[in-house]
């Protein structure tokens, strides 16, 4: 989906502009909330793009910020209207990580550290089915099927002929040894990883057991970067009941440095392919 119609990105850009207008006026989110008789959390969610924003919200905020140029007001209201459009993922119903999908759909590059499983964009259908079922044992078969289809649809970003997502993945060796589904499923999955890693825009490295303690010891995270300079990088940390999005420059910088350490501690690209290939052959026995 093009960035100019991506509702997630629209909300994010609109929120950034509303935050800028508030800061120009020298107002805190709490002061704005008091003026509009709403909660401070609503103002924060509008500014970070995590909440749908109406044209009325924009009009009221522009009134508080004393925006006199009607062209600016109309432009922001149009952005609010565009941000309420639905992305392709809405056709699948309520997806808990829909904000992330919107960001991933528009990202230019993605760096992922995955300690437990093969990351979603590299998963085969059989592996994805086993992961979803195992991770959501109480969900209905219909809901699990929907999650699998969304995951496979997301993979079109790395297989696109034009402007594919640049993907760099560091896989902990544990994810290669964890038997998901069956040994045959694992063999096919690792062969799939090797095939995708041959693409010029995809890099896969393995963080070997022998490294011991490492920079990613605290768990999985992803760093999304965007082509448009107006869109700041985002660190995404997936949770069980809620997800965390970090956009402050010092937070992004900290995770970026951690990722550079992970890359340095991992096997190089060729040695990583050899490690994956060796394990795939072992699963074939």
From TrEMBL:
Source superkingdom: Bacteria
InterPro entries: Cro/C1-type_HTH, DUF5753, Lambda_DNA-bd_dom_sf
Residues in HTH cro/C1-type domain copies: 18-72
Annotated GO MF terms: DNA binding
SUPFAM superfamilies in alphabetical order: lambda repressor-like DNA-binding domains
Protein name in the entry: Helix-turn-helix transcriptional regulator
Source organism of the structure: Streptomyces haneummycinicus
């Amino acid at each position: 989906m093009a960035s100019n119609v991506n509702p997630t990105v629209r909300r994010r850009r609109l929120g950034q502009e509303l935050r800028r207008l508030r800061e120009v006026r020298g107002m805190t989110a709490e002061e704005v909330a008091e003026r509009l008789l709403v909660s401070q959390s609503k103002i924060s969610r509008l500014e970070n793009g995590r909440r749908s924003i109406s044209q009325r919200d924009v009009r009221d905020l522009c009134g508080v910020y004393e925006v006199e140029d009607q062209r600016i007001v109309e432009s922001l209201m149009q952005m609010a209207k565009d941000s309420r459009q639905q992305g392709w993922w809405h056709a699948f119903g309520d997806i808990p990580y829909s904000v992330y999908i919107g960001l991933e759909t528009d990202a230019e590059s993605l760096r992922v550290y995955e300690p437990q499983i093969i990351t979603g964009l590299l998963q085969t259908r059989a592996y994805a089915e086993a992961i979803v079922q195992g991770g959501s044992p109480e969900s209905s078969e219909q809901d699990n099927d929907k999650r699998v289809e969304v995951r496979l649809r997301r993979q079109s970003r790395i297989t696109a002929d034009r402007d594919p997502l640049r993907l760099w993945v560091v896989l902990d060796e544990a994810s290669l040894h964890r038997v998901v589904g069956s040994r045959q499923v694992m063999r096919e999955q690792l062969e799939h990883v090797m095939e995708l890693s041959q693409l010029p825009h995809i890099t896969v490295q393995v963080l070997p057991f022998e490294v011991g303690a490492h920079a990613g010891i605290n768990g999985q995270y992803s760093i999304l970067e965007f082509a448009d300079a107006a869109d700041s990088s985002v660190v995404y940390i997936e949770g069980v009941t809620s997800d965390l999005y970090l956009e402050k420059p010092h937070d992004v910088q900290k995770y970026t440095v951690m990722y550079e350490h992970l890359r340095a501690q991992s096997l190089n690209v060729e040695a990583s392919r050899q490690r994956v290939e060796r394990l795939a052959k072992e699963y074939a026995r």
